[in-house]
Design goal:
By secondary structure, the protein is an alpha/beta fold. 37% of the residues lie in helices and 21% in strands. The protein has a six-stranded mixed beta sheet. Strands 2-1-4-5 form a four-stranded antiparallel beta sheet, covered by helices on one side. The longest helix is centred in the C-terminal third of the chain and has 34 residues, at 260-293.
């Protein structure tokens, strides 16, 4: 298992123009390890207040593989935001084990170590963008590299511009956030989340404040990132968006109550069992037919 004391060295992506390239055939995804991206066991979160204890997460077990594009769905108060906080290392589980990319992010790990790990291995996209208004789009993207101490100082402007080019905003690089549309602000926030080349992207209602066209552009980008090996976990309430993810997970009252991957697997197993049963039944009918056609003296 990895430790937080040896963070990985980033490599510069070559993903410019991935959505506008005339070659519509996606590039082959990077080779993926058999190790899951997210592996949680028995995650419990209990909050204490004046009225007593409230358990928000009730022993969640969940595995998400590398390269999956997953939507997390649940009503307000279902526990999805708390679960996201567990995955991102923002809050601590009361019980359970959380392993991200082979690293247990809570066992024997200090807050400063976890913060450093988060900056280097995790990209977070917020519903309300969280861009600093006094910085240009390029400076906002570069800020994540500054905090995580990733890439040489001289490389960061070029890397930041590369990320803005990835999302189609290179011409707005020197604009303040207030001077671009809300959709463009969210694209800039995604560019910032990708700046340190994280293997995992977590998006909390990333299209909640966008028009349909802008929302589709965001999902197009997430789909392409998933095809290229990034793991994308997105919280959403929009059924039109969940239909485009490769897996849908539903949470209610602190429990996983629906998982399309498990449901599809169960359906596949039931279908296989039904096929086998039909085959056996067909063989029995054929055998009975052959026996009925034999001459009477052959049956003695």
């Amino acid at each position: 298992m990895n430790t937080l004391h040896a963070p990985r060295k980033p490599t510069v992506d070559s993903m410019q123009h991935i959505l506008t390239s005339p070659d519509l055939t996606p590039s082959p995804a990077p080779e993926r390890s058999g190790e899951p991206m997210i592996d949680m066991h028995g995650i419990v979160k209990t909050f204490k207040n004046a009225a007593g204890e409230v358990t928000v997460l009730k022993g969640i077990d969940l595995t998400i593989d590398r390269g999956e594009f997953v939507s997390l769905v649940g009503k307000s108060g279902s526990g999805k935001s708390t679960l996201l906080n567990m995955i991102t290392g923002i809050d601590h589980p009361t019980q359970g084990r959380m392993v991200i990319g082979g690293t247990d992010i809570y066992m024997g790990v200090t807050e400063s170590q976890r913060s450093r790990w988060r900056g280097r291995n995790l990209g977070i996209v917020f519903q309300f963008f969280q861009l600093l208004p006094m910085l240009t789009l390029l400076e906002n993207v570069m800020l994540s590299m500054d905090f995580a101490d990733m890439y040489d100082f001289e490389e960061r402007p070029e890397r930041g511009l590369e990320m803005l080019k990835l999302v189609g905003l290179e011409v707005f690089a020197n604009k303040l956030p207030v001077l671009v549309s809300t959709g463009q602000q969210q694209l800039a926030a995604i560019a910032r989340a990708l700046a340190c080349d994280p293997p995992l992207l977590v998006a909390d209602e990333p299209t909640g404040n966008l028009d349909t066209k802008s929302a589709n552009a965001i999902i197009d980008l997430f789909e392409e990132l998933s095809r290229r090996g990034k793991t994308v976990l997105m919280v959403t309430h929009d059924p039109s968006l969940t239909s485009r993810t490769t897996r849908n997970i539903t949470i209610a009252d602190g429990l996983i109550v629906g998982d399309s991957r498990k449901e599809n697997k169960d359906l596949s197993l039931r279908g296989s069992e039904a096929t086998e049963a039909i085959s056996r039944h067909t063989d029995e009918i054929a055998s009975s037919g052959r026996a009925a056609k034999r001459p009477r003296n052959d049956r003695s």
